[in-house]
Design brief:
About 40% of the residues lie in helices and about 25% in strands. The protein has seven helices and six strands. α3 runs antiparallel to α7. The longest helix has 19 residues.
């Protein structure tokens, strides 16, 4: 599984497109933090992320509500990241209860953070690659709606406009 994940996420065209952005630019990070804060507020979620998925890890570019070791590391292993599913499927990905969902029940990230539900939408680059995801994560079981997905999709499009403004 790990090898397959590495191969799928490490597709050279996708990685090259990610490398074309100045992901460490302070103005970009501030803008994405604000976007994550707004999404968390609109969807009444304690955590929101804007991230890219590298070949083996999720790199958090903007966030709201992220604390502890995840904030310090600015990411987690790709096999723990629910955003990995969003990127690989290329469509909105929703998990109402990760503790009971067999795909995520043994996920160390959920266990360590006590987060439980997830809604993410892909960040699609100009090259058509799914570069990352914009998501909200909650500590309670949630049934996300089509309106929630639409709000998050709109915010993901704004995130991509911010990223495009920081091309190298």
């Amino acid at each position: 599984m790990r090898s397959d994940l590495f191969t799928r996420l490490g597709e050279p065209g996708r990685i090259k497109e990610i490398a074309g952005y100045d992901l460490h630019d302070a103005a970009l990070r501030t803008g994405l933090d604000e976007l994550a804060r707004r999404s968390a507020s609109l969807l009444e979620a304690p955590v929101s992320l804007v991230s890219v998925l590298l070949d083996s890890s999720e790199f958090i570019l903007g966030s709201y509500g992220v604390t502890g070791w995840v904030a310090e590391a600015q990411g987690i292993p790709a096999e723990w990241a629910m955003c990995t599913h969003t990127v690989l499927e290329g469509t909105p990905y929703c998990v109402s209860d990760g503790w009971e969902d067999p795909r995520h029940a043994d996920n160390p990230f959920l266990e360590m953070t006590r987060l439980r539900s997830y809604l993410g939408v892909p960040l699609v680059g100009e090259g058509g690659h799914n570069l990352g995801a914009h998501c909200v994560i909650d500590s309670r079981r949630r049934m996300f709606t089509d309106v929630d997905t639409a709000l998050l999709t709109d915010a993901a499009e704004k995130a991509m406009r911010l990223l495009e403004a920081h091309r190298l």
